[in-house]
Amino acid sequence: MTHAFYLTDEQAEAFGRELDAIRDEVRASLGENDAAYIRRMIRVQRGLEVAGRASLFAGVLPPFWLAGTAMLSVAKILENMEIGHNVMHGQWDWMKDPGIHSTTWEWDTACPAEQWKHSHNYMHHTYTNIVGMDRDVGYGILRMSAYQEWKVWNLGQPVYNALLAGLFQYGVALHDVEFEQVIERKKSWRDAVKMLKTIGRKTGRQSLKDYVLFPLLAGPFFLYVFSGNLVANFVRNLWAYAIIFCGHFPDGAHTFKAEDVGNETRGRWYLRQLLGSCNIEGGRLFHIMSGNLSHQIEHHLYPDLPSNRYAEIAPRVRAVCERYGLPYNTGSFARQFGTTTWRVLRLSLPGGEGLEPRSAMAA
Amino acid sequence: MSFQTTAPAMSRQPASPLRRILGALTWPLTPDAFVESLLPQAPVAARGRVERIEPNGPDAATITIRCPRGWRGHRAGQFVNVGVDVDGVRHTRCYSISSAPERGDGRFTITVKAIANGRVSRHLVQALEVGDTLSLGEPTGEFVLPAVLPERLLMIAAGSGITPIMSMLESLQAQDRLGDVVLIHSAPLPGTMIFGAALERMAQRHSGLTLQRYYTRHGGDTHQPGEHNGRFDAGQLDTLCPDWRERATWACGPDALLQNLERHFERAGVAEHLHVERFRPRLRPGAAADAETAQVTFGRSAVRACGNGAQSLLELAEASGLNPEHGCRMGICHGCTATLQSGRVRDLRSGEIHDEAGDLVQVCVCAPVGDVEIDL
């Protein structure tokens, strides 16, 4: 087992119990302040969206175009990250508000909520960083672990990576279709086409709104609104890509082979989540803009605890990790993004085993 | 009065072209979602602002609520699903509407009695403030007066069971159709009767309305006509209202009262004259021993199974030959969420109890505590 190196079975279970205790404590303390937080966040997001779109109608004046595009970009980022992603995780299900619930939420991105909840909440969060099981390891197009076999077309990876960043929402939507599984005949065309149709319908509605209806409403200023919306979607794509790739692939992050994981206990599951996740340091605003995925470790240990609590539990989680002598991967955005990009470049070539932490390789 | 039942979801009206365009512009949200977030004072669908809270007896209150946008109104006697946030958590209960449909100022009232340990009723009576918002379903229920009104009516209530009847009486009064009505109403003490003063005023104005009031915990012996000590029993109908067999009767109150009336009307061969609205008492926490032999009903598939309190609902469903949708099997992905229809379940991780009908629970980490019905 790759991560047997760090803890004995007894230690792993004790580690798991300590982390469970933190979870239970936070869960029991949720209340009015937390509910007010998410409602305020939603209010701010909707306010920014309305203000941004209104400002773009005056986009013929450059300051309005810039302000409108900036506000809409921020609104789209908040909507996807601090709100949509977290609501769909069930982080706010405890409020029992049908309007802010994982079973009803739909978000402003190409990936339909139902597909996302399967590929992300279940596959990615259960099998985090296990090559061949967690499709976020490269989205089916990038080689992100030395445990993935190198193929000639991996040489083009720096280019695919740049395209993925710019078109991230479509990459996310399509990675769940699992084209390579269809080609290997492990998945039927019928299923793939069904998923593509759903994605197509959703993309159609999104494009109609951002690229037809709102620009048409602006009349002669069609192009200003059109371009503002295009840029806002692009900015959101880049930002989401950067934050999400920093979550699991900076220097020191572990990836795992399916055969090494085996039948995990809850304690070992926690350990793998810790070893496969990386935090990004920053201020309060940065954490909110990242959807608190800058607390990726806490998010992966407790995917359904409300994101506004990650900052407060991070020092406690870190202290537990230190007591067990476990690594806690955190660093500046520059460090995490730089080393992630290095991994993309390095793994476009064969080999790259040196990217896996030495402790794990020794096991 | 309140129920634990859940009213059917509100049906959608066809959207106008303007609303369809607005819908496309706000998609995947709705125009209402923006209005609700950004203009909290504006009326939106399925949400009503609290406009007034008046005490009604010592531990009850009448709450005036502004009708939501698109509100189709109610028939006197119907109830409505009311959702309120307590400590950040939305709780939903049904309350009878206590005002008449004829009220006509875009508002309606519910009248709530705070019951001991009643999280929602206590919040509504004691902590609710003017300006708060309640989530509202559509009015529903069959406890209503027929279009062709019988000449003589008998109405029997106890405690907050008066609320749907109050709506009926107000409605009849507004339509100028309040004729021969005998109303039997109960309260613990003279000053605690819900709508006691309003009913007295109404009886003064309408000679056809006869009040018979019971005070179940009153020891004093000075009474005006129509006031009684003790508990009302159907056997007393012969003296209180000798022609009760010929009267169309509406009754609302605790189950013991309604059973008493049902037996009495049946014995007299006039069961079809009696219309009742029932309290549905909450299932009480089962004793620890119950957990050993929990009967689990999977409502959608009509399968029953016997749980042991340690096995998750998902495992139990699978052992019973069902294959419910699920993901991680460890409570992190929320892919197995299902609706609890009745009973109590325990989260095996934290021991947290979910016990409200309509709660969405993760079946992979929840086990039954006593008998449970779940929508799988």
Short description:
The complex is a heterodimer of chains A (363) and B (376). With 363 residues, chain A is an all-alpha fold.
How does this model look, in words?
The complex is a heterodimer of chains A (363) and B (376). Chain A is globular and about 70 Å long. A two-stranded parallel ribbon of chain A has the order 1-2. Chain A has 363 residues and is an all-alpha fold. In chain A, helix 9 packs across helix 15 (333-346). Chain A has helices at residues 9-29, 32-57, 62-88, 113-126, 157-166, 168-175, 179-183, 189-217, 222-246, 258-261, 266-275, 284-289, 296-301, 310-323, 333-346, 358-362; strands at residues 130-131, 256-257, 279-280, 330-331. Chain A is built from 16 helices and 4 strands. Chain B is an alpha/beta fold and 376 residues long. Chain B has 3 domains: 2-136, Translation factors (Elongation Factor Tu (Ef-tu), domain 3, Beta Barrel), CATH 2.40.30.10; 152-278, Rossmann fold (3-Layer(aba) Sandwich); 288-374, Ubiquitin-like (UB roll) (Roll), CATH 3.10.20. The longest helix of chain B has 13 residues, at 162-174. Chain B starts with a strand and ends with a strand. Mean pLDDT of chain B is 89; it is low at 3-11 and 281-291. Chain A binds chain B through residues 20, 23-24, 27-28, 30-36, 39, 42-43, 46-47, 50, 89-90, 93-99, 101-103, 106-108, 117-118, 121-123, 125-126, 205-206, 208-209, 213-214, 217, 266, 269, 303-304, and chain B through 21, 24-25, 27-29, 33-34, 36-38, 85, 87-92, 327-328, 330-335, 337, 349-350, 352, 359-360.
